[in-house]
Amino acid sequence: MNKTRTRIHVPIGQEEKAEKLGAIYDGRMKSYVVPQHMPIILFQEFIPLPIELVPASNWENNVRSEFKEEWRDIRRVCYRKAGYRCEKCGGVGEDHPVECHEEWSYDDQKGIQKLERLIALCPLCHKSQHYGYAVISGLEQEVRKHILKQNRWKKEDLDKYLEEVFLVFEHRSRREWKLDLEALQDYR
Ligand SMILES: [Zn+2]
Description:
Blueprint: E1 6-7, H1 15-21, E2 24-26, E3 31-34, H2 63-66, H3 71-81, E4 99-107, E5 112-121, H4 123-129, H5 131-136, H6 140-151, H7 155-172, E6 178-180
Parallel strand pairs: 5-6
Antiparallel strand pairs: 1-3, 2-3, 4-5
Helix pairs in contact: 4-6
This protein binds zinc ion (ZN).
C-alpha cells in the first residue's frame, strides 16, 4: 500500500480547523499530514509555499492593469509592511530584495476572484507561485527544488499537488471572473 503522506504546516491554534478538513497528526513525521487518499490542494492555507495559478481567462485583469499609476506606490507599501523580506521563506533576492504578489481567493459559485492581500516575495518564491510561467521560462528545476525545500516535501508530494493545481486551473480558466479589489484599501 502506498503510504505517502504529505507534510503541511499547521500553526498553533489552527489544529482543529486542519483536523476538520481531514488532516491527521503523524507522530513519526512530527507533523500534520494530508492522508494519501485526500487532495493536497484542499489544504492550500496550510502549505508553506503553495502554488496559485490565476485562471487564464483573467490574465489581462489584475491590480497592475486596474491601477496603472498607483501600482508603484501600492507596491512600496507592500514591501515596507514586510520589512523588505520574503513573507514565505524570509529570504531576499540578489538583484532586488522582494517583489509584490497578489494573493487571490476564488468563489467558484459566483465567479468572483477576490484579492485577499498583497504579499512581498523573494524572486524565487514568486516564480514558484507562478509555476506555469516558470516552466515556460526554463526555470522548472530551480523552482521545484525551492518548493520541495520550503514545504519539506518529497518529489511524489509535489507531483501529486501539481496535478491537482493544474486541474483546478483548467477548470477555472473555462469561465470569466469578476475582480474584487476591496482589499487594496489597506495599501493606499
Ligand atoms: Zn522567498
